[in-house]
Write a structure and sequence with these properties.
Fumarase C, Chain B, domain 1, Fumarase C, Chain A, domain 2, three-stranded antiparallel sheet, two-stranded parallel sheet
Length: 552
């Protein structure tokens, strides 16, 4: 029978924090890098994350890439002069593809395409995603397969380096190219219309922002330059990169919250045994179990002595599935993130547009129409990651459910209430905050990639819907951070309620430090108090990544 907890607990209050922290993509590292040089072939995920967080330094076009682009541009114009009919150059777009354009119309056509395609709506993409999308398109153009001038890439990078980020809407794209959001960026790029932010300040008219940044207001596009800007996967890849970065932060912190849970429930350490995980032959699982062992190895609570101290009179034998299988469940998501690095890096250094331009053996050039803008691979990868983040969140909620029930937690007070229990209601309503979100996450984890529908007179009769997948994942990551914040609140409270009984038996050094860090902003719950500020503060800490265990 568990020992009753009777010691008085510290009371206090916490300051409210925003419902949805705007810093979920903010970097805690403000050190500026030396810069990035784009050549279309060597952009790394680390560099992309630096651009996302605004600490990459200046981004430049490699001189050799600029030379290749000029050569390709000359070849493109020669192919048109020979009479090749080319989509987006001397032919119109989409269902109107059979309408020819005269030489005199081609430049005006670029401006009109931007205006007609900038039809998106909804919440704007973050400045980091908008900035990264421009860099990704610039790097794709640097491969010299799209026929654009190097001056266009230099204009895009001038905006990035000056701190000008176009306001890009999140709704409109089907994942078949980034038409609507990149057209909005194109309006800013050319100075024709649209809105932008200067150094992440307020959104204002593009021309005003360009003037403030000291950039030329107008930059007219030449023939064939609009489609390479908008027909690609820059926005989708940027959103995927941001979600992968956020998912890594979430899983790192889940590891810490799980370690606190293990301490609070005096869990069996045998489920982390190196031998059993080696037998599963999944490297990510072995790594996850090893890190959890490192976090808890020196715990005196997760021992027979610790369980006896708390009043357990017989061997526990084994904990519930949610405890024993956690390394495997989390490792599955970790493996998906490892695969994401390959997908993102490959996509960032590929020619994703239509048409593409190639040199023939006879030194002439030709356009080839294809479907290289399609986002099926990224879309399905996002759907997979969404399902796994949802699964880890369900796991987190199940662990929280164990903490508030005396039978399931092996003796912690019901509701994690401070004494006197009953007069104090404790944290049961905090736990149901997570419960309220789990069905929403499960519904939004439905893979959008299987929901293709034909559009545009059947000319675009298969669409990946990858941008819907990206929105679903982004929304679910926000929900996941709340669910995890609830687990932190309950696990920390469980440790505080158990500590008087555990006496001089120490927590593991790493978990004790993490618990202390959490308590610096969220005080222990003694007597019942207004709980929303505590929940909001915990969510803010998770969103900012401040609850990663040391050494992660």
């Amino acid at each position: 029978m568990a020992v009753a907890v009777t010691s008085a607990l510290v009371t206090g209050s916490a300051s409210p924090s925003p419902k949805r922290p705007v810093a979920s993509l903010a970097s805690t590292n403000t050190k500026q890098a030396a810069g990035i040089t784009l050549d279309g072939d060597h952009l790394t995920l680390a560099q992309m994350k630096a651009v996302l967080h605004g600490n990459a330094g200046a981004v430049r076009l490699a001189p050799a890439a600029a030379t290749r682009m000029r050569t390709a541009r000359t070849g493109a114009l020669a192919a048109l002069a020979r009479g090749q009919r080319v989509y987006g150059w001397n032919q119109a777009l989409g269902p109107l593809k059979d309408h020819p354009l005269t030489d005199e119309q081609q430049r005006d056509f670029q401006r009109r395409v931007l205006r007609s395609h900038a039809a998106g709506t909804g919440e704007e993409l973050s400045p980091g995603v908008a900035r990264l999308a421009l860099v990704l398109r610039a790097n794709a153009m640097a491969r010299a397969k799209m026929g654009v001038r190097p001056e266009m890439v230099e204009r895009m990078l001038a905006l990035v380096n000056a701190g000008v980020t176009p306001v890009m809407p999140s709704i409109g794209s089907l994942g078949t190219g980034d038409l609507q959001p990149m057209a909005a960026a194109g309006l800013v790029l050319t100075g024709d219309a649209g809105t932008a932010r200067y150094r992440e300040g307020p959104a204002r008219g593009a021309r005003e922002v360009l003037q403030q940044a000291g950039l030329p207001v107008e930059f007219p596009l030449e023939a064939g330059e609009t489609l390479p800007l908008i027909s690609g996967s820059g926005v989708l890849t940027a959103r995927y990169t941001a979600s992968v970065d956020r998912s890594e932060r979430f899983l790192d912190q889940f590891r810490g919250a799980f370690a606190l849970f293990l301490e609070a429930t005096r869990a069996e350490a045998s489920s982390l045994d190196e031998r059993t995980h080696a037998e599963r032959r999944i490297p990510a699982e072995e790594h996850e179990a090893a890190r959890l062992r490192e976090l808890t190895d020196d715990s005196a609570w997760m021992t027979e002595q610790g369980r006896e101290r708390f009043g357990e009179t017989s061997p526990r034998v084994q904990d519930a599935v949610s405890v024993r299988a956690a390394p495997h469940i989390v490792a599955t998501a970790r493996q998906t993130l490892d695969e994401a690095q390959t997908i993102i890096t490959r996509e960032a250094n590929a020619s994703t547009s239509n048409p593409l331009l190639f040199e023939r053996p006879d030194d002439t050039w030709e356009f080839v129409m294809g479907g290289n803008w399609d986002g099926a691979q990224i879309g399905h990868a996002i759907d997979t990651l969404n399902a796994q983040i949802t699964d880890v969140s369900v796991l987190s909620h199940e662990l929280s459910g164990r903490l508030i029930a005396s039978k399931w937690s092996y003796g912690l007070p019901d509701n994690l209430a401070g004494p006197p229990v009953g007069l104090n209601s404790g944290m049961v309503q905090v736990q149901t905050v997570g419960a309220a979100l789990i069905p929403e996450m499960q519904a939004r984890a439905m893979p959008a990639g299987v929901l293709s529908r034909p559009e545009k007179f059947g000319q675009e009769d298969h669409n990946t819907m990858a941008m819907a997948s990206a929105r679903n994942l982004d929304d679910n990551l926000h929900r996941a951070e709340i669910v995890l914040a609830v687990q932190f609140l309950l696990a920390a409270q469980g440790i505080d309620l158990a500590r008087p009984t555990m006496g001089d038996l120490p927590l593991a050094k790493a978990t004790d430090e993490l618990h202390h860090r959490f308590r610096e902003r969220v005080p222990t719950l003694g007597e019942d108090r207004w709980m929303t500020p505590d929940v909001d503060t915990a969510v803010d800490m998770v969103a900012r990544g401040t609850l990663r265990p040391d050494g992660v």
